[in-house]
Amino acid sequence: MSKAAELAKMGEVLNNSQIGGRRNLIINGGMQVSQRATSATTMTNAYATVDRFKGFSNGGGAFTGEQYSMTASDIATTGQRKALKVLVSTADSSIAAADYYAIQHKFEGDDLQHLKYGTSDAETMTLSFFVKSDTTGTYFLTVDKIANGQTQYLLPQEFTISSADTWEKKTLTISPTAGSTSLITGSAGVIGGGTGHGMSFYFGFAWGTDYHGTNNTWGTGTYATNATANGFMSTVGNEFFLTGVQLEVGEVATPFEHRSFGEELALCNRYFCKFISQAQYVNFTIGRAYSTTNGTSVLSTPQPMRALPTMTTPTVSGNFTYSHSALTLSSHEDALFQKFTLASTGGFAANGAYAVEADAGDVFISLDAEL
Predict the structure, then answer these.
(1) Which of 161, 212, 351, 357 could form a disulfide with 321 if both were Cys (CB 3.0 to 4.6 A apart)?
(2) Which domains are delineated in the chain?
(3) Apex 369 CA angle, 337 and 81, nearest 5
């Protein structure tokens, strides 16, 4: 690229307000954070491995996901040290009308208000990412503007994996008037505010005929263009890799915004956090028993959470000391959802102190406030 061309591109970037602040709207686009697991785990409608990327599926097939450690060659090509690896574990070679298989990334409404959807000034966005698969063909990126009191609108976009087992960078432009439509720029195109679900992006492997529409055209119920564009779900062992996912305002894809592991983890902790006992007798919290059978303690999270979370604790008998028969999340202690009261039952000394303590290593308490 000539110096003049570089300057012209930089001017275009500046005009599109892509410099300054946090450019990338995707959380964990470099796949650095994987709190739930790093090994292959079934992703059927679940956050199973890499944070903020959820399996989304319906049908007889299934796929696993895992955090993949990049080789030196992978890093040289992508600039990323981790990726999400998807592997077909149960094949579906005949996609029924209501079937679908995809990876989903969800956004809060408040984080998208600067897009100005629902007005004539709605912004164009650019999505860029690295992808690799042993199965070439047409895949689908779908933008889902959630209804949230208005109307759900969807934009399917095709992208092609041309060479098997080769990292390819894809760049897609997401126009608010794609297909010469005015759905997003009209009043029903608004993205609802608050901490609720405002938008989803899907990286799709297959969509049944119930969800077909026109490529690069906003519509309703249109997640993709056809069901058998690549045949990825048809064979057990097929692999798909994704990393370097970046979504930004404007029509130019800028270099990937590398954030530290600590910053990405803090962003992920708004939605999910996990307290792990690395060894026996590690205390999760200290509490006070107000009777011989009941007590309370407070658990503080690394970051304020999106909403009052759901708590998961071990089910194996004996993982918590002092014969606790239950440990439940009973309330939150502040408006920001950062301190939570845990109610415990067991054989206590009234008005005495007690610990919620692990009886083994790798015991965990998790708090889930995902969209």
Answers:
(1) 357
(2) 3-269 (2.60.120.260), 272-368 (2.40.30)
(3) 115
